[in-house]
Design brief:
457 residues, alpha+beta, Barwin-like endoglucanases, Rossmann fold, 4 domains, seven-stranded mixed beta barrel, six-stranded antiparallel β-sheet, 34% strand, elongated, YheC/YheD family protein, YheC/D
């Protein structure tokens, strides 16, 4: 296999001929051949091959070739040559959804992020975004959204892509039959598809429990706990979190605490405010929870509370944004330290939290030891990512961890997100990490589509 980068030129000549510069002929090991099989995504096309005298790597595709193959545009692109076939690409698809009536904002709140991916990715690939409705399975094409030079969306029809990055925004939509069928159709065609779906908290805690290294970083957690189990956990740790199994953004979370001779307390978010209730008995606390969430209290997790490091009396936790890189290795790309708002159950920014850099937070909490604590936390995050991946049957290329550090410097993982939000990258000090995040997504797409040279190849 050979990989090279070249300039693709689209001509108006009607014949099915591919003109290749001498240097490129040599790079692709095509010297002496009269024909070539070209591939773009799922489209394979035979054409006559003619060498031309021109310095540099140049590929000229006549209209009889590029229109049939649905080549999106001219410009710099990778070529992958193997077994007499030359693949142009990669052709990268970003799967999302949004308001179908908007031409300028077709992916809702994700449009800005998707534009960022397309803008950067177009320098080294054919990259487009699409929704489930844009796929035409009968002829294996996608009517996708590309970016033009002016930064506006234009629609083009292309073959099925070489790799799909899944950013479908809705947990509910991902469990529907059509979306399940869509994913399976990509897999049957051997098209890498990452990330498969949102995580279920209970599943993540269960699989991490099987790993002796990763399990050290997970607080004691009970799925679908009985009232008796909640009481036992609360009396054992004095502080627990009671949260929905499929929740996100801190919705529906209770911070339950027990203080001897004082009673039981439940802190939670009510509308746009933080609320605190006191109960004289455990029974009255449970009756309130059952009244709100049903007598069976199914679909919830009770988790040991951790006394986190604090700044100004407010707990701090950390969002670790993890990516697979171009060598298929897990790396920490961005870290945001989240300081909770006064009286808040969580550190979510929408609940009054604020964002700091990890260096700011850890230097205030640990002084000169802050750098070493951060190194330990990064190492733990990579171990956690590797443990989750090893237990998954589907591809993961990105993870978000909510990680806490206690005053004894122990590292704790509270949440793992398969499709982490990007709010931490809005911090002025983390903008370069936001750019690095985009670069890692695209580098991993190159790896999965085999347009990145692999070790030993």
């Amino acid at each position: 296999m050979s990989l090279t980068f070249c300039n693709v030129h689209l001509t108006g000549q009607p014949q099915r001929v591919v003109y290749v510069s001498g240097a490129l002929m040599k790079d692709l090991k095509l010297s002496g051949k009269k024909s070539v099989r070209l591939r773009l995504g799922g489209e394979l096309f035979p054409a006559t091959l003619k060498p031309i005298k021109k310095t540099g790597n140049h590929l000229y595709l006549t209209s009889g070739v590029h229109k049939k193959m649905k080549i999106p545009n001219a410009g710099g692109i990778h070529l992958r040559s193997q077994d007499g076939e030359v693949q142009i690409g990669p052709l990268i698809g970003i799967l999302s959804d949004g308001p179908i009536t908007s031409a300028t904002n077709p992916f809702g709140s994700r449009t800005g992020f998707i534009k960022q991916l397309l803008r950067y990715g177009s320098k080294k690939s054919y990259i487009f975004a699409f929704t489930p409705k844009n796929i035409h399975w009968e002829n294996e094409t996608v009517h996708g959204y590309f970016l033009n030079e002016a930064g506006r969306f234009i629609r083009k029809t292309v073959p099925l892509p070489d790799v799909v990055y899944n950013r479908l925004p809705s947990r509910r939509a991902e469990t529907t039959t059509p979306i399940n069928q869509l994913r399976e159709r990509f897999i049957r065609r051997k098209i890498p598809f990452f990330n498969w779906s949102f995580f279920n908290k209970a599943d993540i805690y269960r699989l991490l429990d099987r790993d002796p290294v990763a399990s050290r970083h997970v607080p004691e957690s009970i799925m679908n706990p009985t009232p008796e189990q909640i009481k036992e956990l609360l009396h054992s740790h004095s502080l627990i979190y009671y949260k929905p199994n499929n929740g996100s953004l801190g919705h529906g979370i209770y911070r339950l605490s027990y203080i001897a001779k004082s009673g039981y307390y439940a802190r939670y978010r009510k509308g746009s405010k933080n609320a605190l209730l006191r109960f004289s008995s455990f029974g009255s606390l449970m009756r309130t929870l059952q009244a709100r969430h049903g007598s069976a209290l199914r679909g919830y997790v009770a988790q040991q509370g951790i006394r986190l490091i604090e700044i100004d009396g407010c707990p701090i936790d950390f969002r670790f944004h993890m990516h697979k890189n171009g060598k298929n290795q897990w790396v920490v790309v961005g870290i945001g330290a989240k300081k909770s708002g006064k009286g808040s159950v969580t550190t979510h920014l929408k609940n009054g939290g604020s964002l700091l850099t990890p260096e700011q937070a850890l230097s205030r909490a640990f002084g000169a030891r802050g750098e070493e604590v951060l190194r330990h936390a990064k190492s733990a995050a990579i171990s956690l990512a590797e443990a989750i991946e090893s237990q998954q049957q589907h591809l993961i290329g990105e993870l978000g961890f909510d990680i806490g550090i206690d005053k004894e410097e122990k590292i704790w993982m509270f949440e793992a997100n398969a499709k982490p939000g990007r709010s931490i990258f809005k911090h002025p000090s983390l903008r370069s990490e936001g750019k690095a995040s985009v670069e890692h997504i695209l580098e991993h797409c190159l790896y999965l589509s085999k347009f990145r040279r692999r070790e030993g190849s």
